[in-house]
Amino acid sequence: NKKILLVKRPKGLPAKDDFKMVEGTVPEPKTGEVLVRTLYLSVDPYMRGRMNDQKSYVPPYPLNEVITGGVIGEVIQSRASELDEGDLVIGNYGWQTMQTVDSAQLRKIDETIAPVTTALGILGMTGLTAYFGLLDIGRPKPGETVVVSGAAGAVGMTVGQIAKIKGCRVVGIAGSDRKIQYLLDELGFDAAINYKTTKELKKALAEACPEGVDIYFDNVGGEISDAVMRLLNPHARIPVCGQISLYNLEKADIGPRIQPLLLINKALMKGFIVSDYAARFDEGTNQLAEWLKQGKLKYEENIVEGFENTIDAFLGLFKGENLGKQLVKVAEP
Ligand code: NDP
């Protein structure tokens, strides 16, 4: 059994030696527990925040302990009445190849709906984030213009597609030509802008949004968001989902003051965390699954093979290596 520990608080972009892979034994399951073999694990941008020793909506990862996150596994020994050997389960537990978990922390995956990996993506945390952030805070109406940053990532590509389902004009911002092409050709975005190669982002955005911006779904923050804010329409809504461009900064980055723009446009800017919507997860998952079945929603997964490549997969998020949800395949189901 192998596991990955956080051994140092990263400064800036995490380095390989902030982590350590160690071998260990797995305790026998007690009553109510199961032994789980990890199949897939999720690497997510929010984990970077938990590597700092700072107050947030989730506590920091303790040093020298196993990193935890979304994991899919197979039950190989059960001492819990509701789970059997062979069940596929999802939960928030360790970056570890094998572990003993309290069954209350696990949910059985229904494999008949979609491939099992979707439980960590389109039918899991990132899909639900897109669904609730866009629909509950963004409240899209037909004909409105929606801009989404981080548009070719797990959350972003789902946001754009739901906005299309709701009859909006959708403009995506992403970091490579391959991603831009994908958004336009495969997902039917109305326009897409490569922020890494576009010299005047604000001008390009203004051209892509001739009628201004009604909803800005913010996944990245920083200068990209500053540019979008200039184009807000009256009564614009801004779900603040993530700020990935800031997660590795060592010093706070102070941008232009946007309050006047919010004020004159009577705009709503609201941060949210997907777990706020836990009571409505079934609604979200059912609707996402329905759209998948109807072919109205697509998803992509970027799957890195091998537990030993977990850190690289995580760091790849900050380099834009992923199209869609980044996962690590640890073992064959
Ligand atoms: P993604 O699949 O979008 O992966 C991250 C992407 O961010 C990369 O592929 C990269 O794409 C882009 N990126 C990396 N660095 C920068 C940068 N400096 N500037 C602009 N873009 C950058 O991840 P998720 O879909 O899982 O998450 C997207 C955002 O949503 C994150 O900010 C995350 O923290 C947040 N989030 C929030 C949740 C909530 O409950 N509020 C829940 C889940 C996620 P590119 O090639 O375009 O640069």
Automatic annotation (TrEMBL):
Segments forming domain Enoyl reductase (ER): 12-328
Sorted UniProt keywords: Oxidoreductase
GO molecular function terms attached to this record: oxidoreductase activity, acting on the CH-CH group of donors, NAD or NADP as acceptor
InterPro entries the UniProt entry points to: ADH-like_C, ADH_N_2, ER, GroES-like_sf, MDR_fam, NAD(P)-bd_dom_sf
Pfam family, one: ADH_N_2
Signal peptide: none
Protein's name in the database: NADP-dependent oxidoreductase
Higher taxonomy: Bacteria, Bacillati, Bacillota, Bacilli, Bacillales
